[in-house]
Amino acid sequence: MSEFPKETEVVVVGAGIAGTMTAYFLAKRGVPVVVCEKGRVAGEQSSRNWGFVRKQGRDPRELPAVIESLRIWEGLEAELGEDIGWHQGGSLYLAENDDDLAHYERWMDFAREYQLDTRLLSPDEVDAQIGGEGRIWKGGMFTASDGRAEPEKAVPAVARALQRMGGTVLTECAVRTVERAAGKVIGVVTEKGPIACRAVVCAAGAWSSLFSRNLGHGFPQLKVRASVLRTKPAPLATESNVMSSGAGFRRRQDGGYTIGRSGAAIFEIVPDALRYFRDFQPGRKSQPGMKLKFNDAFFRELVRPNKWQGDQVTAFERYRVLDPAPDMAMLGGMIRFARQNFPQLGPVEIAEAWAGMIDVTPDAIPVMSAVDGLEGYFVATGFSGHGFGIGAGVGRIMAELAMGESVCVDLHPFRLARFTDGSPIELFSKQSWRG
Fold this sequence. Notes:
6-stranded mixed beta sheet; globular; FAD/NAD(P)-binding domain; alpha/beta
């Protein structure tokens, strides 16, 4: 662990993609910054995601931010001087029926609005793109400039870079609370001691609402458990990220594929699910593949304090890394689908399976916001399965926000206050949680 600092300009809570990139952009500006991580860098969802970096299919409210993010990703590997597995092979969404084709045709309006290189593909063009045959797909939507990176490489590389620029990364150092005076942030209390600061960026993933609730600023956020696998080395069928209803996959540097399925996740019924039931009901209806599960997580979180002081041990220290078990039955279904519909991938043998907890909001778009009533406190969370791809742009946005500068995109759709100001919950589509 780095030497413990007594003061800094900005403290970032969480060393996932959003927090680490925020600190990176602050360090690039010469701003003193400390990242505090309760576990390890990218220990949770930021190293467990699919690795897609895409504009295609996004909620149109996210497009300006993700376009900026792609611009950053394109030069990030050279800027870091490290291999992060960056490759621009495009994203391909497969159409299995007329409804899929109609949805893609509607989304093309957004592609044209933002001058994206997205286009619709015929069945023959789809086969050519993925090395298939037999025209089993009715068509597809393809964005050639989309890319991918290796999650377990990318975020640690960013953390090392920000340290080289003078930033500090503290692992196994949970922030317990934020110190305030006259409605302003004046510091944080960590398990290792206090750090004086002017601003705090909460980028704590699935823990963000709990952390903020202790400050009196909780918001509707839940977590879902998504399972993913990687295969043993397999034939190269395509360099594109591929998405279909039964399985999505992308090529890995190790010669295998990462395979998952959008919307196929487990929603554990916990006290927050009851607290935010109304907020999440529209989204629940749009995710027919979501499985509900009642287990000991309900009772564990039921007895977990929602309020604590800086001298008390917190849940952040008791649970350093969320490491849930993968749903092997669900993964088995993905494998069967892949073998049947993508025979060009070979026998698709599992090398490793894992799961991660995705932080979701009722409208499946993130919070990137200042917090009314607590000057100097900012929140970046709720990326709803999109965080890795948009994360580079989030870093720039949150750095600008924390420094009180003009932000590069319109943040009105992502304001925290949308959950309390009477605004309706607006879901873009059932595909909001894809990749």
